[in-house]
Amino acid sequence: MVRVLTINDLISEGVREYYVCIACRFCIGYCPVWDALDTLFFGFRRDSIDRRDLEYFAYLCHDCRDCYYACPYKPPHELGINIPRLNSALRRVVDENYVWPRFMAGLLRRQYIYMASLFLTSLALALALTLAIGSFPEVVSPIITVYQVLPGTYIDIIGLVLGIWGLGILIYEGLRYWRGINGGYGGILDIESHMYALRDAFTHLWFRANGEGCDYPGEYGSYGRFYLHLSMFVGFLTDFAATATAAYYQDALHLYPPYPLTSVPVILGIVGGLLITIGALGLLVLKRFANSELIDDFWFEVDRAMLYLLLSIVITGFIVLSMRGAPFYGLAFLMHISLVSTLFLSAPHSKLTHIVFRYLALVKYYYDKKHKT
Amino acid sequence: MLGYVNLDQRYDVIVGGGGNAGLCAAISACERGKRVLVLVKDSYETRGGHSKYAECVLVAHEEGWHGLRGLSADDYYKLVMRSSKGNADPRLLKFFVENSMRYAEFVERHGVRWINDLKHGISHYRLESPNRLYMLGGGQGLVNALYHWLERRGGCKVVYNAEIVRINAEDGVFKSLEAIINGSRATLRADNLILATGGFEGNVELLRRIWGERFEYIRFRASTVNTGLPIFEMERNGAAMVGRMDEGIHPIVDARVPKFNGGVIDRDYSIPFGITVNANVERIFDEGLYAGGVTEVTYTRILLEQPGGIAYSIFDSKVWGMFKPHAYPPIKADTLEDLARKLELDPDRLVSLVKRFNSSIVPGKDYTVGIEPPKSRNARPIDTPPFYAYPLAPGFSFTRYGVRVNEEARVIRRNNRPFENVFAAGTTMVGNILTGDEYLGCFDIPLGGFFGIVAGENLW
Hints:
The structure holds two protein chains of two kinds.
Chain A: H1 7-24, H2 32-43, H3 51-60, H4 66-69, H5 83-98, H6 111-133, H7 136-140, H8 152-180, H9 184-188, H10 191-203, H11 224-251, H12 264-289, H13 298-322, H14 329-346, H15 353-371
Chain B: E1 11-16, H1 20-31, E2 36-39, E3 56-57, H2 73-83, H3 90-109, E4 133-134, H4 138-153, E5 157-159, E6 162-170, E7 173-181, E8 184-195, H5 204-211, E9 219-220, H6 229-236, E10 241-242, E11 249-254, E12 275-278, H7 293-304, E13 311-316, E14 331-333, H8 336-343, H9 347-360, E15 387-396, E16 402-403, E17 410-412, E18 418-424, H10 444-457
């Protein structure tokens, strides 16, 4: 694929490439894109491909790359088909188009600076808050519980606000995307399609390509990315469970932190942190060896920024755990929650958009499959 | 992946060709502990020859195998015999159909997977034929899996950018060959030679000579890598030849595909669903009968004789979605006049032709009366806008001219005695079984691969 500059060029290039694909269809079975393309032409008897279809395919694609290596028309063939690169460029278009508010879409190109500023701002505000409520001395002195730095109610409220910001905007962006790809009310309300999409997401079905494995980072099928991404995904859920159990301990059982190392919240937190570390480090290593011809340069920073952010959250989490009762325990804690708030604040304008977009593309896939003519 | 080739090392066998047949031969020999050198003319990026455009595999099998409808060896034999108009070597063909299953099991064992077996993401439109296996990743997926097996196995060397330019044999015994490897000439020796270098379906000069002015009309599906030089070298060394040189023209393809190396995306499936007219807006054949095999070939020849070697398949929106679209968008218009103008055809003639065609369809039936040529099947009035057209051109798949072989895949000399240590597989010997332009879908891949496996078993 030629390196296209404007969105219109990219769309016509996408139409050109997918026309070649519908006439070939060697790749059916690797991922749902090819089935969806068939459904478009045979199921819905469409005679053309347009931008909405391309935006839908873009996130249905899991960047698995099997189709590239199986393509007899890949460069240097004169047809020069490179679907992974095309789809990654289209995912850029999707992100820049459906991110809300629109003027923040530019932040996707400035992820390191954006996240660093959010972190420093959060930390500064947290320190200012401790000054305001008079707990600043506890930031540097040995303390028993982090609540001496910030009272639990403050943490709860801040967490709630950040959560609503992150999740709320992500969901809104998802709805914008859904409207953009012409999803319709039937699909978004269809329980069965959601169940299938959830199954695919939780089992990482399309990172396995029907048992073939993804051609990532190299040319031959591998489960590397499947295990690493799954590790990160499970780690994420485990850490969420750790937070939820801690809240349960505190609010229902009236047990207050710090919790012993053998308590459920701490064990879950440690396990989740380790899983995220393995996943994020592993994915960074895979990226190092992955074929950079198959991905739009745009994602270089977006992908890595998220992995670095997650790693720094985990690392500061472990530091907090190991510094209990030591001087600067409070500061370590403030740094940790500032990084967590960076994750929530940047979520709608970061790699995390792929969670909603990809999920909704899968919902549309299963709904269309059911409702083709 | 590429590595260097030790020219002094003596190999047990040199395999010429890195397509399906060559790789099957190499693996078959490699598994028997032979030292194998595979010379691949393609680069690493384009590897797979013409096999990378293959789609499916047809072997004789029991009902229910991989969920397929059964195909007995006898029926398979008849099918191929019909395709070759009775000219196939009956002993070779019988040997192949009775053992064809070995090919499917062989490639399966070496990493090839079938779309038929997959659980998720499968479109039921994909598995067009009820008794064929479709490779996951198509022909490129097939050869990649075989290359991967060879790479992992080690000990058997694959060299890319290596073209065989001369073969030296004496008295029915292969001695050495000369190859250009990465631009420099080398002489290589081995105890055996297996030729799986394909036909000359990509040999521009030769094809131009054979097809004359019609060369300009034809779209060649193979890449220009396939020059057939090793076949002619074997002919020079006394091999008995089979097949004719002007065969292999089929199927009808989209006129917009690349001149060479168009591969599998070019084929037209729309003809039976509409009418096909030439540049003078005359129908050129009975579209209803166009369906693979014999008619496909005859029709491609008819198209080749049309002015400019071009025709247009014209159909309406009623049938859109019933067949596989082309790799290029259809030409589309709301009226037949507009469609004719876009195709640079005479609008009045097209309108009156379609009118005559529509009124000749017997009411309630799907055939026509009173027009020439008739449409004897699948005739539907062309009356529902938008109207569509595809420009059509004659396509060319692969040549049949090659070396004669016996049941050990040994190349036969003109004195009817086999070469001691030269074998052939794939398109280099397909003319033993397929003659004429005819073609049976998904048959040549198991045929070529099977003789490759056999060659690997019978080495000196």
